[in-house]
Amino acid sequence: MSKTITAADITNALKNTVDPEIGINIVDLGLIYGIRIDDSNDIDMRITMTSPMCPVTSVIMADVQLRLENLPGVGKVNLDLVWEPAWSPEMISEEFRIAMGA
């Protein structure tokens, strides 16, 4: 039996996906809105971007898809790009807000 995928496995993998315009990973940016993992290790994830006009959306989405598909034991990966609630800088992790002097 393959390993059960956890939300922590997913967020750890995605800490390597960095928004190239901002230089912060998408987890600490607060772009992950929800993760659901079923009994088959299929992943449904809600994700947003910092703006609907984000020029690197396709790059980030492709990187997320690839990183999740490469997790050992993962089933299908479904990414749902959402715009509600709208992202705001307050969603950045406290650790990075402190590092940025905010």
Give the terminus-to-terminus CA distance: 46 Å
Strands of the biggest beta sheet: in what spatial order?
A: 3-4-5
Order of helices and strands: HEEHEEHEH
Gyration radius, rounded? 14 Å
Shape: globular
Provide mean pLDDT, rounded.
92
- The percent of residues in helical segments reads 25-40%
Describe the structure.
The chain is of the alpha+beta class and 102 residues long. It has a single domain, classed as 2-Layer Sandwich (GMP Synthetase, Chain A, domain 3). It has helices spanning 7-14, 26-29, 57-69, 94-99, and strands at 18-19, 24-25, 32-37, 43-47, 77-81. A three-stranded mixed sheet has the order 3-4-5. Strands 1-2 form a two-stranded antiparallel ribbon. The termini are far apart.
Helix-strand layout with pairing:
Layout: H1 7-14, E1 18-19, E2 24-25, H2 26-29, E3 32-37, E4 43-47, H3 57-69, E5 77-81, H4 94-99
Parallel strand pairs: 4-5
Antiparallel strand pairs: 1-2, 3-4
Characterize this entry briefly.
It contains 4 helices and 5 strands.
Name a few traits of the molecule:
102 residues; alpha+beta; GMP Synthetase, Chain A, domain 3; 4 helices; three-stranded mixed β-sheet; two-stranded antiparallel sheet
